[in-house]
Amino acid sequence: MNEYRGIDFYALDELLSDEERMVRDTVRDFVSEHVVPVIAEHARNGTFPMEIVPRLGELSLFGATLPEEYGCAGLNNLAYGLVMQELERGDSGVRSFASVQSGLVMFPIWRFGTEDQKRKWLPQLAKGEKIGCFGLTEPDHGSDPGGMKTRATRTASGWRLHGNKMWITNGTIADVAIVWANTDDGIMGFLVEKGTKGFSAPEMKGKLSLRASITSELVLDHVEIPEENRLPGAKGLSGPLSCLNQARYGIAWGAIGAAQGCFDEALNYSKSRVQFGKPIAGFQLTQAKFADILTEITKAQMICWRLAKLKDAQKATPQQISLAKRNNVAMALDAARTCRSILGANGVLDEYQAMRHAANLESVHTYEGTYEIHTLILGQAVTGIDAYR
Ligand code: TGC
Ligand code: FAD
Fold this sequence. Notes:
The protein is of the alpha+beta class. The protein has helices at residues 18-35, 39-45, 52-58, 77-90, 92-112, 115-127, 238-272, 284-312, 318-342, 354-366, 371-383; strands at residues 132-135, 151-154, 158-169, 176-183, 186-193, 199-200, 215-226, 230-231, 274-275, 278-279.
């Protein structure tokens, strides 16, 4: 059996602290032991491996950069990125679960919530005892969330929410949904708990991508919630968009993991698959594919390493995060497709991972800001001109 070691052509390992290396190796081993053996079956069945959730909680992988006083690990951004890289080597759906729980649910509660909300939710979310989801996208508003139709209107004791969200990771299994809605005073964030009257989260079926991840609609039919369920610190579209910075950062790292998994598999396969009397690894065309992927993975690693340092210094800009998400996901998608080609016909079987990763990465290319939206964010950064509309 191949013992997965990752790819480290520029010896980035030397730049990691002992703690960062230990975190990475722990998650790497966890993925090899608990994700890799079961994930193809889950992808085939369209199910998420729920049994790993408490284990990820025991390893303190949820909300890992948040403070220890709320039951979190207080890791730096480099260690957090390495966690995401290793999880996505297993499957983008597993990294998605952790991204949503950490960057899109725990982060906004910590950043925008009251002390009571933090004490109530963060420790349980950190342990994986409660699951959260993030409802921003709507049927008619994906790339353009500023136009959302979901409305929150004041009542005597709180708020009434009405509208629909779509494409919500973990919606059906979530205990709490962070719902973004328009009010007379602009966009605000609300905590909607499972079981609240008028609230349901039916699963969306038929995905050919991220099959080992639950994706849902959120239906809010005149849902009444108390004022204490509003996130008081979030005002305007910058509230949800600042959460996306956290998740996009994790995706930039995660994509490297998916590419590494595909590279490792294709490399091993190419050394043992013999055609025309020699291993296909010995053909120049195969080697050119590996040289290209190796180069792109290494460039992506350098981007993420530097971005982690900027983020720890609180200097990372949303535009720098966009560059990393855009580049690394496109890189991983190309790498997965190329690795699939190296596997020949076997590459279309789900006992190999390349095609599953390639299919998953189609979603990753689209969510958290499509490739094109990140192109426009970078275009605006360099020209100063907004070209969205
Ligand atoms: P715009 O006028 O540019 O901005 C509105 C306000 O927001 C501020 N802002 C940000 N703040 C923090 N972080 C960012 N990244 C920010 N980007 C913008 C901005 O400064 C402004 O603040 P203020 O104080 O002046 O009001 O807004 P716009 O309507 O022109 O839209 C800009 C655009 C297109 C870049 C934005 O809407 C966008 O990023 N669209 C993409 C939507 C998206 O990424 N959706 C993701 C949904 S969640 C998801 O996909 C989860 S998948 C999870 C998984 O399974 O892993
Ligand atoms: P659209 O915005 O309709 O875009 C369609 C095409 O038009 C794209 O190619 C896009 O790049 C292009 N386009 C749009 N505007 C422009 C423009 N101005 N210039 C040039 N091209 C443009 N959302 C959540 O809120 N929470 C979640 O947990 C979540 N999980 C998801 C899980 C999965 C599996 C998927 C697939 C999506 C998820 N999403 C989630 C939704 C995701 O964020 C949106 O799909 C994404 O933001 C794009 O929106 P859209 O699908 O409506 O595409």
